[in-house]
Amino acid sequence: MRCFFVYNPVSGRGKITKKLDYIVQKLKEKYDVVDVYATKGAGDMEKAAREAAGRYDAIVFSGGDGSFNEIVQGIGDTEFPPELGYIPSGTVNDIAHTLGIPKSVRGALKVILTGDNEMLDCMKINDRYAMYVVAAGAFTSAPYTTPQAQKKQIGRLAYGIEGIKKNLRFDVFDVAVKNEGARVETDSIFVILMNGRYVAGMKLNKKSSIRDGQIELAVIRQKKNPNVFKKIRAFLALAHLFLFGFRVPEKQIIRFTGKEFEIEAAESVVWNFDGEKGVCGNVKICVLPKKINMIVPKGSKNI
């Protein structure tokens, strides 16, 4: 079997570069050929994955949630995608938490060498892809606007600082959500669609599965030109969602579960895909069941 190992050399303070020889040595216990590539900038991992998809039996990659998104973008149009192995090295690693993949290099490699292959769902957004989250509104720009140097210095706290700097105004935008014939129109400060349990390091969707063929959607309502009280109320609703989860009732949150959604929004509304800047404006989002061939910990049942 042929394996392509691609990694982000700046993710996780460069720990993968330091352990590269060890990683290649371990991968050769499973694969006959292991070719290595270090990415050179944003979008490079997507390009590398797209080129490798038809030439290798496996793509093993290392980076954060954004790197995972680039891999999914790269193989999303492939009819028979290769198996994926993941060594988490990002700041938050939401997908690794959902899948139960250890953050340590040694632990992640054990999963790749001895784990089970599972076919996982992903999401398609217009002509793009996301693995576990699509979101717009308050704080959603922080993952891709936070400077890399700041992430290295203070880790996930950097996201919070960036979010506070740029999102305290809680801009209100119009959205119309259509799901299986139902249509809801509202003003909102935050919209999120989830295909996984963890978002921003928190177990936001703990009863969901990444292989159930379903997407969970939450919209936090807000009136235009809100007064101070309404701004505080919206902030509390956002905090409620992240602290208590998707399924705990909250009057200011509209919730849906389904396989396909159409969302109308202005071109000024920017969508975040797995921590990366995605598209703007209107989106059509659907689940692609059993699209991703992923190596997960042996015996995994609750993913």
TrEMBL record:
Membrane-spanning ranges: none
Pfam families for the chain: DAGK_cat (PF00781), YegS_C (PF19279)
SMART domains: DAGKc
GO cellular component: plasma membrane
Keyword hit for Methyltransferase: no
Gene3D superfamilies from the UniProt entry: 2.60.200.40, Probable inorganic polyphosphate/atp-NAD kinase, domain 1
Cofactor: Mg(2+)
Protein's UniProt keywords contain Nucleotide-binding: yes
GO annotation (BP), single: phospholipid biosynthetic process
Domain DAGKc: 1-129
Keywords, alphabetical: ATP-binding, Kinase, Lipid biosynthesis, Lipid metabolism, Magnesium, Metal-binding, Nucleotide-binding, Phospholipid biosynthesis, Phospholipid metabolism, Transferase
GO MF, any single term: ATP-dependent diacylglycerol kinase activity
Family designation: Belongs to the diacylglycerol/lipid kinase family.
NCBIfam families the UniProt entry points to: YegS/Rv2252/BmrU family lipid kinase
Name of protein: Diacylglycerol kinase family lipid kinase
UniProt source species: Candidatus Borkfalkia avistercoris
